Amino acid sequence: MNRSLLFVSPFITILALAAAGFHTTASPAQTGSVISAASMLEPRSGHSATLLPDGRILIVGGMRRNQDFYKSAELYDPASGKFQPTGEMNERRVGHVAVLLRSGKVLIAGGWISIHGATDSAELYDPATGKFALIGKMTTRRARQSATLLANGDVLLAGGDDHDGPDAAVASAEIFHSRTLRFEQTGSLHHPRRGNTATLLNDGRVLVAGGGNARLLAAAEIYDPKTKKFSETGSLITPRYKHTAGLLPDGRVLIAGGSDEHDWNGNLTSAEIYDPKTGQFSPASPLNDSRFKLPDEAVRLASGKLLIAGGSREVEVFDPANGKFSAASGELNDRWHYLSETKLQDGSVLLAGGYANDDQATARAWIYRP
To answer: Is 16 helix (H, G, I), strand (E, B) or coil?
Structure first.
């Protein structure tokens, strides 16, 4: 987009424009670029996307539109830049969680199996065979719960909805034991939550922030794997849900976007930062565009910056060095909600799917290059 017809000193140019009565405005800072990639095999939103040890990305489930859920899965191969089919799940699901285990297999758990029903079922995907296998059930039905890989290789699953409705959120939590492939109840959240985030801190604890039930919460909690209990910590400045969160290089946590109690009419630009040393949240510079229904976890780039995509045509990058968001060059072709963002082994990020305001998912995909 930049052009240069001939070399002129920028300082002389600015002076000349000012003398002629023109007012100059600094162009917005841009960080990285977004380009179109090959499309997925199916339009999907509310799916999961997991980086496998061999560098491919596993795309699982999701929906074409309400009540049209997928069993199917596909693989993105960065070597060819194309998607290819792989095995099918045993159950259709959307709003589930997917976690890469130390074994190289992927845990798929919970999610909606119908417009009104969540499931307690779980499956394992084996990249070596390309197949899914059912395993033991969770201790309760959950959809859009949080899932966090702990330092010992187990997985913390917390909150989520057990059915459709304004009071559907649960406060229970459980641990998936990766060696025995079994689920076990652990300490409960202090508040039922859905649409929250869960971020693994550098000390092995987990910050659970935002979300709520019929009412959104400012309250945040910390899960300690040593005690297997949740304890309350400082409160968010702004109650929010369907936001994103990301761990910064210095151990603090960025919380950004989401929505207030007005949902579609309450999208937020605000952001804040949690400091584990003080247990408090402080305001951060706002996003350039309001957005919600974001991936739970912002992508941390090799530079330590955080990538945030979804809910807006713009892709933004948070720079902890100056505490500000900058827009990447290029953009998505709509405000895709519940798309997936997954860092590839070369440091670029695959953005895939999502749905716009008409509830129709897209098969489009993009690559963000730092």
So the answer is: helix
CATH for 28-369 (1.10.260.40, 3.30.1480.10, 3.40.50.450, 2.120.10.80): 2.120.10.80
Q: What is the pLDDT of residue 10?
A: 32
Please name the residue that has the structure tokens 């912002």: 298
Beta bridge partners of 326: 317
Amino acid (1-letter code) at residue 260 = D
Looking at residue 1, what is its pLDDT? Answer: 36
pTM over 0.85: yes
**DSSP readout, 130-181?**
TEEEEEPPPSS-BBS-EEEE-TTS-EEEE--BSBSSTT-BB--EEEEETTTT
Domain ranges of the chain: 28-369
CA end-to-end distance (rounded Å), the chain: 17
pLDDT tens-place string over residues 46-76 = 999 999 999 999 999 999 998 899 999 999 9
